Amino acid sequence: MRSINLFKRSDAANIALMRSQFEAFSRQLPLLYFTLMVNSIAVAYTHVETAPVFMSKVIPSILCAGCTLRLLVWARRRALGTVLTDGQIAVRMRNTVILVVLFGMAFTFWGLSLYPYGGAYERSHVAFYMSITVIACIFCLMHMRMAALLLTAIVLGPFVVFFSLTANTVLMAIAMNVVLVTVTMVKVLLTYYRDFADLVNAKKVLEDKQQQLLALNSENQRLANIDSLTALPNRRHFLALLGKHFADERLDETRFAVGIVDLDGFKQVNDLHGHRAGDSLLREVGQRLAAFVSDDLQIARLGGDEFGLLFARVCSSDALLSISSALCDALRKPYALSETTMRISATIGIALFPEAGRTAEQLFERADYALYHAKAHRRGQATIFSEQHESTIRHLGSIEQALRQADLEREMNLHFQPILNVATGEVVSYESLARWHSPTLGKIAPDVFIRVAEKSDLIHELTAVLLHKALAFMEKSDPRIGVSFNLSARDIASPDAVECIRQIVLQSGVDTSRLTFEVTETAIIEDFAKGREALSRLSALGAKIALDDFGTGYSSLHCIHQLPLNSVKVDRTFVGDIERDRLAQGIVRTIVELCRNLSLSCVIEGVETERQAAALAELGCNFMQGYHFGKPAAMDDCAVRHPNLKLPFPASGCVG
């Protein structure tokens, strides 16, 4: 048992070596038992005539039966293919060592017991049987060092002692030869076993490294497909899932949908409370969205405050809108972050396959357009891409093509709308407004073609052409009158575009104090830091900066405080019912007072009636703009040719 414990301490400690020993020995086991049985049957056969039946038939039959039974057990286990645990393997290897000891003692005792029977040939056969059998068994047990050494000691010891006591020189010489050969075999066995163990260890090291590489690769794959902030799948994973749907052979039999979720008000939260609060908000949004994930709905973060939805199976549009509405409701609930509570909403654009598109790119673009339409008309709700949207896309596509082929210098023009100081009735400035008359499409609304230009790469070229025209008008007009020029979000976001604008202004030689650049809150909020830098560079020219559509954004006070502003233009939404709406009156009065305290000019847009102008005047508004004072007019309009014309207050609206 001491040898068994030694085996347990040495081999069982190395699991990989133990398993390799077990697998190698399992392949050698049939050969071991076959050799043992054949040699034993041969020596028993030569002693049938000389030895008693018990010695020549009964004992070898029992021993061979034991070998056969053991062989059948091992064969059955291998046929079942049962995966053994490390503990089970250790037990079976210990049992194997015990069986080797028992079988070795039994066959050795039987072989030496046959020696007295028969003549010189039979006795030589016994010596040959024992020597050749032990060598064969050592070879078969070379992967189990302990078992091989124990068998060598069990067989070789009695063999040498027994034949040394026979006083037969030949048998004694045979015994010495067997000892030398066996010692050599043991030396070979130990060397082989050491090389075998080294090979197994090297293989184990390689497998461990391979496992580490696989684990690292798996982790990299996970990280490459997971958004670290929200723990949702990322854009790459989302597009891969979408690609799998289109690669499915049963594509034509399925009906699925792609959705894009955009958070309304997230940028304002990010700007007002900082990126840490924005990240916390996105994590909470991710958790709420993750609650909707199922086999039929996959959700991923596409980037920023946009999330992707992949509806694997769509029963109906109503069911799709129902799930989407539930998503919007979940995201609309208050967010308790740190010491404040925030509220945002979510707008969703959805595109169905195959109605909206038959490729991944088309479906994604249609969902994006549905989102754009929803944010403009159904903010905070879900919109499914429809045939009407498709017609609009085709129309916008034709506008883009016409815009790309247009002679911008010839086809683009500016109209000018006066801004008045109502206290004196004088025109103090004109806002330049783009107009396009296409030879192929006719007149195109400014909000349409400017939006198309912004979504393409044409906006910077368009801005440059229109700015040249505005500066040309300034050279011809009264030097006391200013001109406002609108910049797009794309212009503000591009340092190259801002530098181009600066160079155009510098090369024109106009008095830059007469020039005002108008920007919207939306354009600034897209990237506040970059927008502030751009406006500072334009302000350095000596030009003025006006914040347009003030009051429609989420961070108006933040914009006023942080930006190099000279004036604020209050959005027309506050003017419509200003004579009766006390809330609107209060808001306008507050904005006017705020601007006065900050030394900013305040211009009220969208004044269309005399009553509105009178009500605004009572609230302290001095500068107004709108159809009541003049519609946008071309350069050769009478009001533009005579900028010194004073319009008595209240104005009659004769301009344009």
UniProtKB/TrEMBL annotation:
SUPFAM superfamilies: EAL domain-like, Nucleotide cyclase. SMART domains: EAL (SM00052), GGDEF (SM00267). Residues 396-646 form the EAL domain. Residues 254-387 form the GGDEF domain. Signal peptide: none annotated. It comes from the Bacteria. Keywords: Coiled coil, Membrane, Transmembrane, Transmembrane helix. The keyword Cytoplasm does not apply. The chain crosses the membrane at residues 29-48, 54-75, 96-118, 148-165, 171-193. CDD domains: EAL, GGDEF. Residues 199-226 form a coiled coil. This is GGDEF-domain containing protein. It comes from Trinickia dabaoshanensis.
